[in-house]
Write a structure and sequence with these properties.
Distance between the termini: 40 Å
Radius of gyration: 23 Å
Order of helices and strands: HHHHHHHHHHHHH
Strand content: under 5%
Structural class: mainly alpha
């Protein structure tokens, strides 16, 4: 059977996607293998198959190191910070994106402002942010960290939702207005219910980003009991040694919530990605 140019192109795409998938899975597989090996075994053969798997690393990681913070505690702190950050940030970003899409001319300057915020390096706010949090006495508070996360989430959420709402069918909104509905009513009862897939996709992307955030957590979470997961995983590294086995086990446990969140929201993510082509 002769290979046509189209078929060759299809095979090349499949091969490229397969290689990309394997490359993306390699770090996860390596972490899983390392999580059931001792530190000496990891040092001797980082990518090797464990000869004598041990699951004590997961118990050690879950309970935390001696005089350290248990991993389950850091998960709760991360859940609080991420929930506040995503909840507030995506909600404000959705409303702001809708307003910018509905008033592209009068609010064009505001749209440029949000885009400009995406280019500002995070490092420039570290010192003033620490001073502000100290003055307000909200250091070592996961909820306060969540509000900081929300401020970081709002610009990107606004830009993404504004792009989505720019192609939203205006006939539905105008029809609702003819029936006496206000702009707020149309947004709450028509636009947002029809946009749940896209909003869920933006929320998931932001949640994954914030779940792995470390820099701001280091600056604002000074007390050990307030630490988030990225900070908690550093507890297994001391001045003289690194407990690689428990650290990799904690890393695997930290990945599980995001995987579960993706699996739960999978249908909405797919519908959100397809919604633009279905309209």
């Amino acid at each position: 059977m002769k290979l046509t140019l189209k078929r060759v192109g299809g095979l090349a795409v499949v091969a490229a996607l397969t290689l990309w998938t394997l490359a993306a899975l390699l770090p996860i597989v390596s972490a899983v293998l390392a999580s059931v090996k001792t530190t000496d075994a990891i040092t001797a053969s980082p990518l090797g198959i464990p000869a004598n798997p041990t699951f004590d690393n997961f118990t050690r990681a879950w309970n935390g190191p001696l005089y350290g913070v248990p991993l389950w505690k850091t998960m709760i702190n991360s859940a609080i910070a991420v929930s506040v950050g995503v909840g507030v940030g995506v909600s404000v970003g959705t409303v702001a994106g809708y307003a910018l899409a509905r008033n592209p001319r009068t609010l064009s300057w505001l749209n440029r402002y949000f885009v400009l915020l995406l280019t500002v390096p995070q490092i420039v706010i570290w010192v003033p942010l620490f001073s502000l949090a100290s003055d307000l006495n909200v250091l070592s508070s996961p909820a306060a960290l969540g509000l900081v996360y929300a401020a970081l989430v709002i610009p990107l959420s606004t830009v993404l939702m504004r792009t989505y709402f720019a192609s939203f069918p205006l006939d539905l909104i105008e029809a609702a207005k003819v029936d006496g509905a206000s702009e707020t009513y149309a947004l709450a009862r028509i636009v947002i219910p029809m946009s749940k897939g896209t909003i869920g996709l933006v929320a998931l992307l932001q949640a994954i980003m914030l779940w792995n955030e470390l820099a701001l957590a280091v600056i604002l979470l000074l007390e050990p009991d307030s630490q988030t997961i990225p900070l908690g995983l550093t507890q297994f590294r001391s001045q003289f040694e690194v407990e690689l086995g428990p650290q990799f086990a904690g890393l695997v446990l930290a990945i599980v919530p995001m995987i579960m969140l993706y699996l739960i929201a999978n249908r909405r993510i797919i519908s959100g990605m397809r919604l633009g082509s279905l309209r």
